[in-house]
From TrEMBL:
Keyword Transcription belongs to the record: no
Signal peptide: none
Domain Flagellar basal body rod protein N-terminal: 10-35
InterPro entries in alphabetical order: Flag_bb_rod_N, Flagellar_FlgE/F/G, Flg_bb/hook_C_dom, FlgE/F/G-like, LlgE_F_G-like_D1
Species annotation: Solimicrobium silvestre
Flagellar hook protein FlgE/F/G-like D1 domain ranges (all copies): 88-151
NCBIfam families per UniProt: FlgEFG_subfam (TIGR03506)
Entry protein name: Flagellar hook-basal body protein
Length: 245
């Protein structure tokens, strides 16, 4: 396949991946605690460095890099809900949840007590405490302090664990806005961040900015289509002229 075709196809595939990332951000713009993904790829210098030169008689073979996503770790705005089990983290850190696929992390603190007395997330995943799951036995709503201590009446039942990562960009977004670590050996530590009770963190997505990025990506995709079609027409024309001889 000609190089121009290869470049156009890879570029259009990259645009489709960017569009998927942008669409996910827009879809979660109202999800509490959601942190948007940013599309990224290698710089031109990195591409040249990774390209191979087999010998001096051959040209350098350059492959366009694929698009990957990284997490935007900027905090979202805080809104008041006045709900005693709605929590927002002030500072760096994430709530830790136990899911069927392993540990996951979130900034969304819209918690509730399930029928078994466990403190769980909106999707029903248990919230990790420093000593395990947090279980409430009483009928009344538990109280939570800014340091994360949970009390059932006058009885302390646990402390919510807030973790931080040495490599914040090693986290990636999964379904439901949950975050997972791409590195199984990622170092975590207990965060000293405080909680705001009766508040939730909004997504750090600005829909208008995402729509502008979507428009730019769409225009770039269209330009690559024109490049592909133009090059195809040139080859067809060349073949026809050769056939006349």
């Amino acid at each position: 396949m000609a190089d121009a075709f290869s470049i156009a196809i890879q570029s259009m595939q990259n645009d489709m991946q960017r569009m998927d990332i942008i669409s996910e951000n827009v879809a979660n713009s109202a999800t509490p605690g959601y942190r948007r993904a940013l599309s990224t790829n290698q710089s031109f210098g990195d591409v040249l460095q990774s390209s191979s030169l087999s010998n001096v008689t051959h040209s350098i073979e350059i492959t366009l890099p694929t698009v990957t996503s990284v997490l935007d770790t900027a905090s979202g705005s805080i809104k008041s809900t006045s709900q005693p089990l709605d929590l927002a983290i002030s500072g760096d850190g994430y709530f830790e949840l136990t899911t069927p696929d392993g540990l996951a992390y979130t900034r969304a603190g819209n918690f509730h007590i399930n029928e078994d007395g466990h403190l769980v997330s909106q999707d029903g995943y248990p919230v990790s405490g420093k000593g395990g799951d947090i279980i409430v036995n009483g009928k009344s709503t538990p109280t939570i302090t800014p340091s994360g201590e949970v009390s059932d009446g006058s009885t302390a039942v646990g402390q919510i664990r807030i973790v931080s990562f040495a490599d914040k960009h090693g986290l990636q977004t999964r379904s439901g806005g949950l975050l997972v670590s791409t590195n199984n050996d990622a170092e975590t530590s207990d965060s000293s961040a405080q909680l705001q009770i009766g508040f939730l963190e909004n997504a750090n997505v600005i829909p208008l900015n995402e729509m502008v990025s979507m428009l730019e990506t769409s225009r770039h995709f269209e330009s690559q289509q024109k490049l592909f079609q133009g090059y195809d027409e040139q080859i067809s024309s060349a073949i026809q002229k050769l056939g006349q001889f």
